[in-house]
Amino acid sequence: MTRDIETELAKLDQLAYILENAVPIPGTDIRFGLDAVAGFVPVLGDTIMLIPASVILQRAHAYGVSRRLMVRMGLNLAIDVIIGMVPLFGDIFDVGWNANTRNVKLLRDYLQTSGQMGTPIAIPA
Q1: Please, are residues 61 and 74 in contact by the beta-carbon 8 Å criterion?
Q2: Residue 28 DSSP label
Q3: Which end of the chain is more exposed for a tag (fewer CB within 10 A), N or C?
Q4: Beta bridge partner(s), residue 2
């Protein structure tokens, strides 16, 4: 099965949206998602949220991003998890940091500058 990269990125954008921005706080511009909600479960919540976040890193690796970019994306997640584990402050931080959205943007920027956008890709079954 093949799919173009833009379609794949749209799916990653959707994943990041659900994790970080799906629920608006009425009367504000603030949004949060499953990542912030899971953060209310000490340690376990932030750790479990690494599973969907790792999908973005796995796809970046499959596209051949540089080791430097993979480290940067991993640091975004590490910051999210480590600070997210701090009671209350970490939950507030989770609402604003949006590591998954940052990582999808980094991947998109990489693919655009490398000239890979619009190229069909093989998707494992």
Answers
A1: no
A2: S
A3: C
A4: 122
**Closest residue by Cα to residue 11 from 116, 114, 100:** 100
Query: Which residues are 3's β-sheet partners?
Result: 121
Other CB atoms within a 10 A radius of the CB of residue 30 amount to 12
Say how far apart CA 58 and CA 46 lie, in whole Å. Answer: 19
* 101's tokens: 């959205």
Token readout for 24 is 């608006």
Give pLDDT, residue 1: 39
pLDDT exceeds cutoff 50 at 35: yes
Check residue 10 and give its pLDDT: 95
Q: Quote the distance between the C-alpha of residue 122 and its chain's center.
A: 22
* Reported pTM: 0.87
CA dist 16 and 34 (Å) reads 10
